[in-house]
Amino acid sequence: MKVRYHYVQKDSVKYCDISSTVKEAYDYLKETGYRCIPVLKNGKTFAGFIYKAHILEHYVENEGKETDALEPLIKNQDAYIFEEDSFFKTFLTIRRLPFLAVLNEDKEFSGIITHSNIMDVLEDSFGMKTGGYLLTVGTKEHKGAIKDLVTAVKDLNIEGLLTLDNGDKYIRRIILNLSSDVSENKLTKVIKKLEDKDFRVTSVDRIEKQ
């Protein structure tokens, strides 16, 4: 899965230019309502983020002037990812940031990827768009555990599969997303089949199609 399929395009992003003064950037932040926006050079090159908090700190603690240059206040110059990077790479870097800048192959600013974009992908893996049943299945960690589980439900349409507790030596949880066309009778039989194979179904959630 590539970043280019899951980010906010530049046309929909609020940003300011590196040539802006502190006052111009602050006024624009107030106008947009955001606490942080990207800063670009010549409308193409990503220069970093400007935070409302840092501008206020500049005014109050450092007795800065409204006409001061914006560039010294820019942060997170390395907070970017490329369109062709794996989407999952965002998990490694976005946690401490409000968003990541997205750059194209020419290293030009293309847009941003947000925490909301990540949630959309996770919701999709949980079947929030298609609906269905979510089974949380516990198993003792052993070689071939996922293969055994998939074999047990091979007659059903599996919409998604997510594993938790990876690396745990004893217990692993597996989230199994089954199609909404599974009848309750069939679901009961599947649960019994899983438990007969030493899996433990700890919860079953019905997800309505959004």
From TrEMBL:
Keywords: CBS domain. The keyword Kinase does not apply. Coiled coil: none annotated. PROSITE patterns: CBS (PS51371). InterPro entries: CBS_dom, CBS_dom_sf, Lmo0553-like. Residues 8-66 form the CBS domain. This is CBS domain-containing protein. The lineage of its organism: Bacteria, Bacillati, Bacillota, Bacilli, Bacillales.
